[in-house]
Design a protein that fits this description.
Strand content: 35-45%
Number of strands: 24
Shape: globular
Helix content: 10-25%
Structural class: alpha+beta
Distance between the termini: 56 Å
Number of helices: 10
Protein backbone atom coordinates (compact mmCIF):
# COMPACT_ATOMS: atom_id res chain seq x y z
CA UNK A 1 0.00 0.00 0.00
CA UNK A 2 2.83 2.42 0.78
CA UNK A 3 4.44 1.77 -2.59
CA UNK A 4 1.16 2.67 -4.27
CA UNK A 5 0.77 5.77 -2.10
CA UNK A 6 4.27 6.97 -2.94
CA UNK A 7 3.67 6.42 -6.67
CA UNK A 8 0.31 8.20 -6.63
CA UNK A 9 1.71 11.12 -4.64
CA UNK A 10 4.62 11.67 -6.98
CA UNK A 11 2.27 11.50 -9.95
CA UNK A 12 0.16 14.38 -8.63
CA UNK A 13 2.89 16.38 -6.85
CA UNK A 14 2.72 20.05 -7.94
CA UNK A 15 5.63 21.89 -9.53
CA UNK A 16 6.85 23.76 -6.44
CA UNK A 17 10.15 24.28 -4.62
CA UNK A 18 9.46 21.44 -2.16
CA UNK A 19 6.65 18.96 -1.65
CA UNK A 20 6.36 16.14 0.89
CA UNK A 21 3.73 13.68 2.02
CA UNK A 22 3.53 12.24 5.55
CA UNK A 23 1.37 9.13 6.08
CA UNK A 24 0.26 7.82 9.47
CA UNK A 25 -1.88 4.86 10.46
CA UNK A 26 -2.52 4.01 14.10
CA UNK A 27 -4.50 1.16 15.67
CA UNK A 28 -5.07 1.15 19.42
CA UNK A 29 -6.64 -1.17 22.01
CA UNK A 30 -7.23 -0.24 25.67
CA UNK A 31 -8.42 -3.04 27.96
CA UNK A 32 -9.43 -2.36 31.56
CA UNK A 33 -10.67 -4.52 34.42
CA UNK A 34 -12.13 -2.39 37.22
CA UNK A 35 -13.47 -3.84 40.45
CA UNK A 36 -13.31 -7.30 38.85
CA UNK A 37 -15.50 -6.25 35.91
CA UNK A 38 -14.13 -6.02 32.36
CA UNK A 39 -14.99 -2.64 30.89
CA UNK A 40 -15.92 -2.34 27.20
CA UNK A 41 -12.72 -2.36 25.10
CA UNK A 42 -11.73 1.00 23.69
CA UNK A 43 -10.65 0.42 20.10
CA UNK A 44 -9.58 2.93 17.47
CA UNK A 45 -8.07 3.07 14.01
CA UNK A 46 -6.97 6.29 12.35
CA UNK A 47 -5.33 6.77 8.96
CA UNK A 48 -4.52 9.69 6.69
CA UNK A 49 -1.86 11.87 5.12
CA UNK A 50 -0.60 15.43 5.22
CA UNK A 51 0.85 17.17 2.17
CA UNK A 52 3.41 19.93 2.82
CA UNK A 53 4.37 22.50 0.18
CA UNK A 54 7.11 25.14 0.24
CA UNK A 55 7.04 27.56 -2.68
CA UNK A 56 8.47 31.06 -3.21
CA UNK A 57 9.26 31.28 0.50
CA UNK A 58 5.77 30.35 1.68
CA UNK A 59 4.62 27.24 3.57
CA UNK A 60 1.31 25.45 3.20
CA UNK A 61 -0.03 22.09 4.31
CA UNK A 62 -3.28 20.19 4.01
CA UNK A 63 -4.44 16.84 5.42
CA UNK A 64 -6.84 14.25 4.08
CA UNK A 65 -8.07 10.76 4.86
CA UNK A 66 -8.87 10.25 1.17
CA UNK A 67 -5.82 8.36 -0.09
CA UNK A 68 -7.02 8.09 -3.70
CA UNK A 69 -5.16 10.07 -6.38
CA UNK A 70 -8.00 12.60 -6.48
CA UNK A 71 -7.89 13.00 -2.69
CA UNK A 72 -4.13 13.55 -2.77
CA UNK A 73 -4.47 16.01 -5.65
CA UNK A 74 -7.08 18.06 -3.81
CA UNK A 75 -4.95 18.19 -0.63
CA UNK A 76 -1.88 19.23 -2.63
CA UNK A 77 -3.87 22.00 -4.31
CA UNK A 78 -4.97 23.36 -0.92
CA UNK A 79 -1.38 23.25 0.33
CA UNK A 80 -0.21 25.18 -2.74
CA UNK A 81 -2.87 27.86 -2.15
CA UNK A 82 -1.84 28.24 1.47
CA UNK A 83 1.85 28.44 0.55
CA UNK A 84 0.99 31.25 -1.83
CA UNK A 85 -0.89 33.12 0.88
CA UNK A 86 1.98 32.85 3.37
CA UNK A 87 4.76 33.77 0.89
CA UNK A 88 6.37 37.01 2.03
CA UNK A 89 4.11 37.18 5.11
CA UNK A 90 5.77 34.66 7.46
CA UNK A 91 8.34 35.14 10.20
CA UNK A 92 10.75 33.04 8.16
CA UNK A 93 11.49 32.54 4.47
CA UNK A 94 10.79 28.82 4.24
CA UNK A 95 12.47 28.66 0.85
CA UNK A 96 15.84 29.27 2.53
CA UNK A 97 15.50 26.20 4.77
CA UNK A 98 17.29 23.08 3.54
CA UNK A 99 14.65 20.43 4.22
CA UNK A 100 16.03 16.90 4.75
CA UNK A 101 15.87 14.25 2.01
CA UNK A 102 15.92 11.08 4.14
CA UNK A 103 15.95 7.41 3.10
CA UNK A 104 15.60 4.35 5.32
CA UNK A 105 13.48 2.26 7.66
CA UNK A 106 13.01 2.08 11.42
CA UNK A 107 11.06 -0.32 13.65
CA UNK A 108 10.45 -0.78 17.37
CA UNK A 109 11.84 -3.92 19.01
CA UNK A 110 9.55 -6.73 17.84
CA UNK A 111 9.46 -8.66 21.11
CA UNK A 112 6.51 -10.86 22.12
CA UNK A 113 3.68 -9.78 19.80
CA UNK A 114 0.57 -8.80 21.85
CA UNK A 115 -1.66 -9.95 18.97
CA UNK A 116 -0.76 -13.58 19.66
CA UNK A 117 -3.13 -13.37 22.65
CA UNK A 118 -6.86 -13.00 22.20
CA UNK A 119 -8.65 -10.09 23.83
CA UNK A 120 -10.15 -12.55 26.33
CA UNK A 121 -6.71 -13.86 27.26
CA UNK A 122 -5.41 -10.35 27.89
CA UNK A 123 -8.42 -9.51 30.05
CA UNK A 124 -7.88 -12.69 32.04
CA UNK A 125 -4.27 -11.69 32.75
CA UNK A 126 -5.48 -8.30 34.01
CA UNK A 127 -8.33 -9.82 36.03
CA UNK A 128 -6.03 -12.33 37.73
CA UNK A 129 -3.79 -9.57 39.04
CA UNK A 130 -6.55 -7.06 39.82
CA UNK A 131 -8.38 -9.49 42.08
CA UNK A 132 -5.27 -9.66 44.27
CA UNK A 133 -5.98 -6.06 45.28
CA UNK A 134 -8.96 -7.22 47.38
CA UNK A 135 -7.03 -7.82 50.56
CA UNK A 136 -8.99 -5.56 52.91
CA UNK A 137 -12.46 -4.01 53.18
CA UNK A 138 -10.90 -0.55 53.10
CA UNK A 139 -9.84 -1.09 49.46
CA UNK A 140 -12.72 0.68 47.72
CA UNK A 141 -11.49 0.77 44.13
CA UNK A 142 -8.98 -1.17 42.05
CA UNK A 143 -8.23 -1.65 38.39
CA UNK A 144 -5.71 -3.04 35.92
CA UNK A 145 -5.29 -1.93 32.31
CA UNK A 146 -3.26 -2.68 29.21
CA UNK A 147 -2.99 -0.21 26.33
CA UNK A 148 -1.38 -1.43 23.10
CA UNK A 149 -0.83 0.67 19.98
CA UNK A 150 0.61 -0.05 16.54
CA UNK A 151 1.68 2.84 14.36
CA UNK A 152 2.89 2.94 10.76
CA UNK A 153 4.42 6.10 9.36
CA UNK A 154 5.93 7.04 6.03
CA UNK A 155 7.51 10.20 4.69
CA UNK A 156 7.95 10.83 0.97
CA UNK A 157 9.24 13.82 -0.95
CA UNK A 158 8.36 14.49 -4.56
CA UNK A 159 12.03 14.22 -5.53
CA UNK A 160 12.61 10.73 -4.15
CA UNK A 161 13.23 10.80 -0.39
CA UNK A 162 11.49 7.93 1.38
CA UNK A 163 11.27 6.78 5.02
CA UNK A 164 9.11 4.09 6.61
CA UNK A 165 8.76 3.60 10.37
CA UNK A 166 6.81 1.06 12.45
CA UNK A 167 6.15 1.41 16.17
CA UNK A 168 4.75 -0.91 18.83
CA UNK A 169 3.74 0.79 22.10
CA UNK A 170 2.61 -0.87 25.32
CA UNK A 171 1.37 0.79 28.52
CA UNK A 172 0.38 -1.38 31.52
CA UNK A 173 -1.09 0.06 34.70
CA UNK A 174 -2.54 -1.12 38.01
CA UNK A 175 -3.92 0.88 40.93
CA UNK A 176 -5.75 0.48 44.24
CA UNK A 177 -7.57 3.07 46.35
CA UNK A 178 -8.13 2.80 50.10
CA UNK A 179 -10.56 4.83 52.21
CA UNK A 180 -11.24 5.07 55.94
CA UNK A 181 -11.99 7.80 58.46
CA UNK A 182 -12.46 10.47 55.82
CA UNK A 183 -9.04 9.81 54.27
CA UNK A 184 -8.57 8.44 50.75
CA UNK A 185 -5.23 7.31 49.34
CA UNK A 186 -4.33 5.73 45.99
CA UNK A 187 -1.20 3.76 45.13
CA UNK A 188 -0.38 2.92 41.55
CA UNK A 189 2.02 0.59 39.84
CA UNK A 190 3.07 2.26 36.62
CA UNK A 191 2.09 5.81 37.51
CA UNK A 192 -1.09 7.74 36.73
CA UNK A 193 -0.73 9.83 33.58
CA UNK A 194 3.06 9.51 33.69
CA UNK A 195 4.95 6.31 34.28
CA UNK A 196 5.75 2.94 32.80
CA UNK A 197 5.38 2.91 29.03
CA UNK A 198 7.73 1.50 26.41
CA UNK A 199 8.16 0.26 22.86
CA UNK A 200 8.10 -3.50 22.34
CA UNK A 201 5.77 -6.42 23.10
CA UNK A 202 4.40 -8.45 25.96
CA UNK A 203 7.87 -8.87 27.43
CA UNK A 204 7.30 -5.36 28.78
CA UNK A 205 4.88 -6.87 31.30
CA UNK A 206 7.78 -8.75 32.87
CA UNK A 207 9.87 -5.58 33.08
CA UNK A 208 6.82 -3.83 34.55
CA UNK A 209 6.48 -6.53 37.19
CA UNK A 210 2.78 -7.18 36.67
CA UNK A 211 2.84 -10.45 38.59
CA UNK A 212 2.43 -9.66 42.26
CA UNK A 213 1.68 -5.98 41.70
CA UNK A 214 -1.99 -6.25 42.72
CA UNK A 215 -1.31 -7.11 46.33
CA UNK A 216 1.64 -4.72 46.44
CA UNK A 217 -0.36 -1.64 45.39
CA UNK A 218 -3.20 -2.52 47.78
CA UNK A 219 -0.72 -2.81 50.64
CA UNK A 220 0.79 0.50 49.54
CA UNK A 221 -2.59 2.25 49.60
CA UNK A 222 -3.32 0.89 53.10
CA UNK A 223 0.15 1.94 54.24
CA UNK A 224 -0.53 5.51 53.08
CA UNK A 225 -3.93 5.46 54.76
CA UNK A 226 -2.23 4.91 58.13
CA UNK A 227 0.75 7.20 57.46
CA UNK A 228 1.19 10.69 58.93
CA UNK A 229 1.16 13.77 56.71
CA UNK A 230 4.45 14.71 55.11
CA UNK A 231 6.33 17.23 57.28
CA UNK A 232 6.72 20.79 56.00
CA UNK A 233 9.89 22.85 55.89
CA UNK A 234 13.13 23.37 53.99
CA UNK A 235 14.99 20.09 53.67
CA UNK A 236 16.65 17.67 51.25
CA UNK A 237 14.53 15.76 48.76
CA UNK A 238 15.37 12.41 47.16
CA UNK A 239 13.32 12.06 43.99
CA UNK A 240 12.95 8.54 42.63
CA UNK A 241 12.83 7.98 38.84
CA UNK A 242 9.02 7.96 38.58
CA UNK A 243 8.96 11.50 39.99
CA UNK A 244 12.16 12.62 38.29
CA UNK A 245 10.50 11.98 34.92
CA UNK A 246 7.87 14.64 35.66
CA UNK A 247 10.54 17.03 36.95
CA UNK A 248 12.54 16.54 33.75
CA UNK A 249 9.45 16.88 31.57
CA UNK A 250 8.14 20.11 33.04
CA UNK A 251 11.25 22.04 34.08
CA UNK A 252 13.75 20.95 31.41
CA UNK A 253 11.75 19.60 28.46
CA UNK A 254 9.15 22.32 28.00
CA UNK A 255 11.47 25.27 28.77
CA UNK A 256 13.96 24.06 26.13
CA UNK A 257 11.44 23.72 23.28
CA UNK A 258 12.74 26.19 20.73
CA UNK A 259 9.40 27.26 19.26
CA UNK A 260 8.29 28.16 22.80
CA UNK A 261 11.49 30.18 23.29
CA UNK A 262 10.76 31.94 19.98
CA UNK A 263 7.26 32.84 21.23
CA UNK A 264 5.06 30.48 19.20
CA UNK A 265 3.25 29.02 22.23
CA UNK A 266 2.76 32.33 24.03
CA UNK A 267 -1.04 32.50 23.75
CA UNK A 268 -1.68 28.85 24.59
CA UNK A 269 0.87 26.88 26.61
CA UNK A 270 3.10 29.82 27.49
CA UNK A 271 6.70 30.79 26.83
CA UNK A 272 9.97 29.92 28.56
CA UNK A 273 12.32 31.51 31.05
CA UNK A 274 15.12 30.36 28.71
CA UNK A 275 16.39 32.86 26.12
CA UNK A 276 18.57 32.30 23.05
CA UNK A 277 21.62 34.01 24.56
CA UNK A 278 21.78 31.40 27.34
CA UNK A 279 22.95 28.54 25.12
CA UNK A 280 26.60 27.72 25.58
CA UNK A 281 27.10 29.64 28.82
CA UNK A 282 24.10 29.38 31.17
CA UNK A 283 24.44 27.24 34.30
CA UNK A 284 21.16 25.33 34.24
CA UNK A 285 22.15 22.94 37.05
CA UNK A 286 24.99 21.80 39.21
CA UNK A 287 28.03 20.15 37.64
CA UNK A 288 26.35 16.77 38.31
CA UNK A 289 23.58 17.44 35.74
CA UNK A 290 23.94 15.78 32.34
CA UNK A 291 20.82 15.67 30.15
CA UNK A 292 20.62 13.90 26.80
CA UNK A 293 18.08 13.94 23.99
CA UNK A 294 18.10 10.32 22.85
CA UNK A 295 15.48 9.03 20.38
CA UNK A 296 17.82 6.14 19.53
CA UNK A 297 17.26 4.05 22.69
CA UNK A 298 15.12 1.21 21.25
CA UNK A 299 12.82 0.40 24.17
CA UNK A 300 12.15 3.98 25.24
CA UNK A 301 8.69 5.35 24.52
CA UNK A 302 9.54 8.09 22.01
CA UNK A 303 12.35 6.46 20.02
CA UNK A 304 12.38 6.85 16.24
CA UNK A 305 14.70 6.96 13.27
CA UNK A 306 13.59 10.31 11.79
CA UNK A 307 11.37 13.11 12.99
CA UNK A 308 8.26 14.16 11.06
CA UNK A 309 10.19 16.62 8.90
CA UNK A 310 12.63 13.86 7.91
CA UNK A 311 15.55 14.92 10.11
CA UNK A 312 17.60 11.86 11.24
CA UNK A 313 17.48 11.15 14.96
CA UNK A 314 20.69 11.15 16.98
CA UNK A 315 21.69 11.25 20.62
CA UNK A 316 23.01 14.64 21.74
CA UNK A 317 23.58 16.43 25.03
CA UNK A 318 21.32 19.37 25.85
CA UNK A 319 22.97 20.03 29.21
CA UNK A 320 26.52 18.92 30.02
CA UNK A 321 27.99 19.25 33.52
CA UNK A 322 25.22 21.72 34.27
CA UNK A 323 25.85 24.02 31.29
CA UNK A 324 23.03 24.55 28.76
CA UNK A 325 24.26 23.55 25.29
CA UNK A 326 21.33 23.32 22.84
CA UNK A 327 17.52 23.56 22.60
CA UNK A 328 14.81 21.16 21.50
CA UNK A 329 14.23 22.59 18.03
CA UNK A 330 13.70 20.94 14.64
CA UNK A 331 14.90 22.07 11.21
CA UNK A 332 12.51 25.03 10.85
CA UNK A 333 13.11 26.43 14.33
CA UNK A 334 16.85 25.96 13.97
CA UNK A 335 16.80 28.06 10.79
CA UNK A 336 14.71 30.75 12.49
CA UNK A 337 16.94 30.95 15.57
CA UNK A 338 20.30 30.39 13.88
CA UNK A 339 21.24 27.76 16.45
CA UNK A 340 21.77 23.99 16.36
CA UNK A 341 18.91 21.88 17.72
CA UNK A 342 17.74 18.28 17.46
CA UNK A 343 15.46 16.05 15.36
CA UNK A 344 12.24 16.73 17.25
CA UNK A 345 9.67 18.16 14.81
CA UNK A 346 6.82 15.84 15.73
CA UNK A 347 3.09 15.59 15.06
CA UNK A 348 0.55 13.58 17.04
CA UNK A 349 -1.33 12.48 13.93
CA UNK A 350 -1.65 12.80 10.17
CA UNK A 351 -3.92 15.86 10.54
CA UNK A 352 -1.52 17.93 12.64
CA UNK A 353 1.60 19.80 11.54
CA UNK A 354 4.95 18.93 13.18
CA UNK A 355 6.06 21.28 15.95
CA UNK A 356 8.99 21.21 18.37
CA UNK A 357 8.36 18.46 20.95
CA UNK A 358 10.56 16.70 23.44
CA UNK A 359 11.03 12.98 22.68
CA UNK A 360 13.31 10.87 24.90
CA UNK A 361 14.76 13.34 27.38
CA UNK A 362 17.00 11.63 29.94
CA UNK A 363 19.15 12.50 32.94
CA UNK A 364 22.35 10.49 32.68
CA UNK A 365 23.34 8.23 35.62
CA UNK A 366 25.94 9.33 38.13
CA UNK A 367 28.04 7.26 40.53
CA UNK A 368 26.07 7.17 43.81
CA UNK A 369 24.22 4.12 45.09
CA UNK A 370 20.79 4.57 46.62
CA UNK A 371 22.30 3.88 50.04
CA UNK A 372 24.84 6.65 49.51
CA UNK A 373 22.15 9.11 48.41
CA UNK A 374 20.08 8.35 51.51
CA UNK A 375 23.11 8.32 53.78
CA UNK A 376 24.03 11.89 52.87
CA UNK A 377 20.64 13.25 54.01
CA UNK A 378 20.31 14.39 57.63
CA UNK A 379 16.72 15.62 57.26
CA UNK A 380 14.63 15.01 54.17
CA UNK A 381 11.99 13.05 52.29
CA UNK A 382 12.16 10.40 49.57
CA UNK A 383 9.30 10.87 47.06
CA UNK A 384 7.80 8.55 44.47
CA UNK A 385 5.11 8.65 41.76
CA UNK A 386 3.74 11.99 40.60
CA UNK A 387 0.12 12.74 41.37
CA UNK A 388 -0.22 16.48 40.68
CA UNK A 389 1.67 19.24 38.95
CA UNK A 390 1.43 22.98 38.50
CA UNK A 391 3.89 25.25 36.70
CA UNK A 392 3.70 28.82 35.45
CA UNK A 393 3.51 30.00 31.82
CA UNK A 394 7.28 30.44 31.53
CA UNK A 395 7.87 26.92 32.92
CA UNK A 396 9.75 28.40 35.83
CA UNK A 397 7.88 28.38 39.18
CA UNK A 398 6.48 24.91 39.95
CA UNK A 399 4.72 22.86 42.60
CA UNK A 400 4.50 19.06 42.41
CA UNK A 401 2.76 16.46 44.58
CA UNK A 402 3.58 12.76 44.92
CA UNK A 403 1.70 9.62 45.93
CA UNK A 404 4.23 8.26 48.39
CA UNK A 405 6.92 9.63 50.63
CA UNK A 406 9.31 8.37 53.25
CA UNK A 407 11.05 10.49 55.83
CA UNK A 408 14.85 10.38 56.03
CA UNK A 409 16.59 11.25 59.30
CA UNK A 410 20.25 10.93 60.13
CA UNK A 411 21.00 9.16 56.85
CA UNK A 412 18.39 6.45 57.50
CA UNK A 413 14.97 5.75 55.97
CA UNK A 414 12.23 6.35 58.55
CA UNK A 415 8.42 6.28 58.43
CA UNK A 416 6.25 6.43 55.32
CA UNK A 417 4.40 9.77 54.91
CA UNK A 418 1.40 10.67 52.78
CA UNK A 419 0.72 13.60 50.45
CA UNK A 420 4.36 14.67 50.02
CA UNK A 421 4.93 17.73 47.86
CA UNK A 422 7.61 20.26 47.03
CA UNK A 423 7.95 23.54 45.16
CA UNK A 424 10.74 25.46 43.51
CA UNK A 425 11.94 27.55 40.57
CA UNK A 426 13.32 25.81 37.48
CA UNK A 427 16.01 28.45 36.95
CA UNK A 428 17.60 27.60 40.31
CA UNK A 429 16.21 24.18 41.33
CA UNK A 430 18.62 22.10 39.24
CA UNK A 431 21.60 23.91 40.81
CA UNK A 432 20.61 22.32 44.12
CA UNK A 433 21.31 18.86 42.67
CA UNK A 434 23.81 17.30 45.08
CA UNK A 435 23.63 13.60 44.23
CA UNK A 436 22.89 11.52 41.12
CA UNK A 437 22.19 7.81 41.37
CA UNK A 438 24.17 5.20 39.49
CA UNK A 439 22.89 2.72 36.90
CA UNK A 440 21.32 0.54 39.61
CA UNK A 441 18.83 3.36 40.34
CA UNK A 442 18.14 4.15 36.65
CA UNK A 443 14.67 3.51 35.16
CA UNK A 444 13.21 3.97 31.65
CA UNK A 445 9.75 5.59 31.87
CA UNK A 446 7.57 8.02 29.92
CA UNK A 447 4.17 9.59 29.35
CA UNK A 448 1.54 9.18 26.61
CA UNK A 449 -0.09 12.52 27.47
CA UNK A 450 2.06 15.56 26.73
CA UNK A 451 -0.15 18.36 25.41
CA UNK A 452 0.94 21.35 23.36
CA UNK A 453 0.00 23.36 20.28
CA UNK A 454 -3.08 24.94 18.71
CA UNK A 455 -5.00 22.88 17.75
CA UNK A 456 -3.89 20.72 20.66
CA UNK A 457 -1.57 17.78 20.08
CA UNK A 458 -1.17 15.03 22.71
CA UNK A 459 2.06 13.18 22.10
CA UNK A 460 4.31 10.46 23.56
CA UNK A 461 7.48 11.32 25.49
CA UNK A 462 10.11 9.11 27.06
CA UNK A 463 12.06 10.00 30.19
CA UNK A 464 14.78 7.91 31.82
CA UNK A 465 16.50 8.90 35.01
CA UNK A 466 18.33 7.70 38.11
CA UNK A 467 17.31 8.72 41.62
CA UNK A 468 18.47 12.28 42.37
CA UNK A 469 19.08 14.23 45.60
CA UNK A 470 18.33 17.95 45.90
CA UNK A 471 19.29 20.14 48.85
CA UNK A 472 17.37 22.91 50.63
CA UNK A 473 14.01 22.34 48.93
CA UNK A 474 10.68 23.70 50.17
CA UNK A 475 8.64 20.64 51.18
CA UNK A 476 4.99 20.48 52.26
CA UNK A 477 2.29 17.96 53.10
CA UNK A 478 -1.41 17.80 52.41
CA UNK A 479 -2.23 19.72 55.58
CA UNK A 480 0.19 22.56 54.75
CA UNK A 481 -0.04 23.02 50.97
Amino acid sequence: MLDTLARDFRAIAPAVDFCALRFMEETSELLTVRQDVAEPPRLSTDRGVMVTVIDQGGLGYAATSDLTPSGLREAAARAVRLAGLTAGRSVVDYGRIAMPRPKGRYASPSGDDPSRLSRREKLEILADEAKNCRIDGRIVDWEASLWTTRTRQAYFTADGAEVEQAFHFLVPNLSATAHAGGITQTRTHGGRDNGFCRQGGLEILDAFGLKGSGRAVAEGALELLAAPECPAGTMDVLLMPDQMMLQIHESIGHPLELDRILGDERNFAGTSFVTLDMFGTYRYGSALLDVSFDPTRPEEYASYGWDDDGLPAERVHLIRKGILERPLGGAVSQARAGIAGVANARACSWNRAPIDRMANLNVEPGDSTLEQLVGAIDNGVMMRTNVSWSIDDSRNKFQFGCEWGRAIRGGKLAEVVRNPGYRGISATFWRSLTGVGDASTFEVLGTPFCGKGEPNQVIRCGHASPACRFSEVEVFGGASS
